[in-house]
Design a protein that fits this description.
Length: 80
């Protein structure tokens, strides 16, 4: 997933560079706005991917924490 996110960000950089070229070349405003809307959608998609990744990691951490707590509780129970 990390490579996918990085690739998406690189694509966004390329799109923004294209918008700069469009502005320098005098391309119509509506065409520039169309490209910027695509960039905005791309940024939203990348943000979603990052959030999904972080949530998955947090969930895994919470599950491991619960397992460890259960193991410690069993150890304490058997030790007493």
């Amino acid at each position: 997933m990390e490579k996918d996110i990085t690739a998406r960000i690189r694509n966004l950089v390329g799109q923004l560079e294209a918008v700069v070229r469009m502005r320098d070349s005098g391309v119509r405003c509506d065409e520039q706005l169309t490209q910027l809307k695509a960039v905005r959608a791309g940024v939203s998609a990348v943000m979603q991917k990052i959030i999904e990744k972080e949530l998955a990691q947090c969930t895994k951490f919470a599950e491991r924490k619960q397992v460890m707590a259960k193991l410690f509780a069993e150890l304490i129970h058997h030790a007493s």
